[in-house]
Amino acid sequence: MHPTEIHSIIRSGIDRNSRNYPGGMNESESGMNMAGQNRNVAVLFSLIASMTVGALILMSLDHNGPSAGAYSLSSYLRLDPVDEVVRNTIKNEVVQWNRIEIVYSKTGGGNVKELALLTGLADGGSADVHFVVCNGKGGDDGQIQAAGFWAKQQPCGSKPGTIRICVISDRRSDGVTDNQLQRTDALAESLSRTFDISPRTIQYPLDWKM
């Protein structure tokens, strides 16, 4: 074979290798890169699988009933923001408030309308509360409802200037749920901040869990 033809064949082989392995990469190096890519893909799929399993476990643990009193993140996030409940329910000119009082409804369930109805049937008056925090029996667990006294910015009870928050609970069979605890504390903090009420003037029940 003529030397020119041999040189042409060798050159053609080099060109093919160059196209298959850019930058002069040999077959061994290419195999190592492919193996590394395969490992990266395997790790990625493992992470996705782990995150999916973890999310499913959390969702399965997040189906506690309101009576169990366990904190439910998804239920909590579905509730209206506390600051919006405080501000957006006011229909009259805002008055000056200087105290916050938290009391129990002494009922196993209910909401702001039912509480007003029960009070009206008992003594013909209105429920002396500005806000009601539900326990899942009459309203969503942790739901904050504004009463007519708050919408009209009127005092209630025998303590002028005091905002009364009623937590639905009979304190016997069910107690107070974790959602109620967190939402009531958040409501008191929002009211304190909005109306410049000193935290020292917030009155909780003696057995309240801080």
Give the topology:
Blueprint: H1 3-20, H2 27-61, H3 73-78, H4 82-88, E1 99-104, H5 112-123, E2 131-133, E3 144-146, H6 148-151, E4 162-167, H7 178-194, E5 202-203
Parallel strand pairs: 1-4, 1-5, 2-4
Antiparallel strand pairs: 2-3
Q: What this model shows, in words?
A:
Helices cover about 45% and strands about 10% of the residues. It is of the alpha/beta class and about 210 residues long. The protein has a 5-stranded mixed beta sheet.
Using the 3D structure, state the CATH architecture of the largest domain: 3-Layer(aba) Sandwich
Shape: globular
Report the end-to-end length measured between terminal Cα atoms.
96 Å
The CATH topology annotation of the largest domain reads as: Lysozyme-like
Strand content: 5-15%
Kindly state the percentage of residues in helix.
40-55%
What is the tally of beta strands? Answer: 5
The Rg value, from CA coordinates, equals 33 Å
Q: What topology, given as strand order, has the largest sheet?
A: 3-2-4-1-5
Low-confidence stretches: 2-10, 13-21, 55-71
Write down the domain tally: 2
Structural class estimated from helices and strands: alpha/beta
Quick one: biggest sheet?
A: 5 strands, mixed
Q: Which terms would index this structure?
A:
five-stranded mixed sheet; alpha/beta; 210 residues; Lysozyme-like; 5 strands; 47% helix; disordered N terminus
